[in-house]
Amino acid sequence: MNIKITIAYDGTRFSGWQIQPGRDTVQGALLCAIQKITGQKVDVLASGRTDAGTHALAQVANFHVTSAPTPASFRRALNGALPRDVRIRRLEIVDEDFHARRDALRKSYRYQIYTGPVVSPFEYRYYYHFTYDLEMAPMIEAARALLGEHDFTSFAAAATTAKSAVRTLYRSEVRKVGYRLFYQVEGNGFLQHMVRNIVGTLLEVGTGKRKPYSMANLLKARDRRMAGPTAPSQGLFLVRVKY
Amino acid sequence: MNIKITIAYDGTRFSGWQIQPGRDTVQGALLCAIQKITGQKVDVLASGRTDAGTHALAQVANFHVTSAPTPASFRRALNGALPRDVRIRRLEIVDEDFHARRDALRKSYRYQIYTGPVVSPFEYRYYYHFTYDLEMAPMIEAARALLGEHDFTSFAAAATTAKSAVRTLYRSEVRKVGYRLFYQVEGNGFLQHMVRNIVGTLLEVGTGKRKPYSMANLLKARDRRMAGPTAPSQGLFLVRVKY
Question: What is the domain extent for residue A40?
Fold first, then answer.
């Protein structure tokens, strides 16, 4: 049986998705819970890894088991065995060939920035606190310049191992609600650190350090050193994976 | 100088407001930050203590110092010295005779319950997860029966030391938004555990274990053993203190 799960997690105390010896990871927590409930050692495959500290509203993963309780009671049992900062929102039995990473068509991320003087004690884990003045119009323009198909090498982690850095963005929007600034992006795939590097660059545009029309050249340069710094992981949420 | 501060805190990791040796408390964190910034050992007095695990959106406290930076930079410096789960939202210089506890006229609390199957990993610290079916109409009626001036002995912690248990409630409302149930209460004062004991009793009304018209007799009984259990502290927020 091939089981598809939709998972929410607070990434604050995790060293990211991928299992690592001696560290708390989301994949590790899931493997442990599944083994506890089914007695089976499985491999849990996500749509993609998330960085240490990054959150997910609806990460998707799948795993194979030889037998399992009904979906409703399996989900309940797994949530009972999982730490409370990882929750299985949906659990379904799917076709044997469903593959959470290969079959993902689109992914959406949201990056959250708090620009006010005092971050709420209930929200500091989920916002990057950035108090310099930000000009919205140039940020909106710069974000829009990333729409469509581009080689995103300039925004990829220097150590990235992806064969091709060509990705398509269907949405790339900055909006501000009071002191809260959100960057929302949807694409057919993302390179390592790509969203955080885009945000770091957009913040340089917002503070006037960089011009919005320079984004086209930045993409053409295909040079990580030309883009802005990597924004911290705590503001990043994996929002949705479409299949 | 008499300094009035309005404080928000996430009570999750604190053993309540009041300073205790060897424990993390909100008062202890504040004393420590004030001493670090001003070099002065002060006494920080709140409008009232909150229990271990209880949160505050706007607790009010005051303290006296012989000298201090301007309010804006004092607040900034204190927030820099405080852990991120305690934030000073406002800091003002007030009349020498202002007293955060004695001068409080009204206090508002909110209690949060999540009734759905899966609590979000971003919210579990702030909701009591209660999954039994709840009937709203009787709960609303029972909450309303507490409005006005009553002796609340039945809802006070057994060990309470208050001289009089007579308090007046100006608001006592239950409402449900999707899976979220909120109890909102405003009064001229509250006995220890009073809100949590009211909520524990209202939940018994909601599950049919207790009738809403029994609330009048429960108040008359002045007997803690007649009321419901104490609802867990994690769902409770001190919302506002009026002066």
Answer: 2-94
Question: Could you tell me the CATH number of the domain that includes residue B178?
Answer: 3.30.70.660
Q: Cβ contacts (< 8 Å) between A10 and chain B: which residues?
A: 121-122
- Looking at the predicted structure, is the pLDDT value of residue A160 above 80? no
Contacts of B87 in chain A (CB under 8 A): 118-121
The C-alpha of A190 sits at a distance from chain B's nearest C-alpha, in angstroms, of 24
The number of domains in chain A is 2
* H-run or E-run covering B169: strand B166-177
CA distance between the termini of chain B:
19
Q: What ipTM was assigned to the predicted interfaces of this complex?
A: 0.89
> Which of chain A's residues have a Cβ under 8 Å away from the Cβ of B55?
122
Residues in chain A: 243
Q: Is the pTM of this model over 0.80?
A: yes
Please answer whether residues B12 and A10 qualify as being in contact, where contact means their C-beta atoms are separated by less than 8 angstroms.
no
Looking at the structure, tell me whether residues B89 and B112 fall in a common domain: no
Nearest chain A alpha carbon to B88: A118
Kindly report the nearest CA distance between residue A226 and chain B, in angstroms.
Answer: 33
Q: What are the tens digits of pLDDT across the range B38-97?
A: 999 999 999 999 999 999 999 999 999 998 899 999 999 999 999 999 999 999 999 999
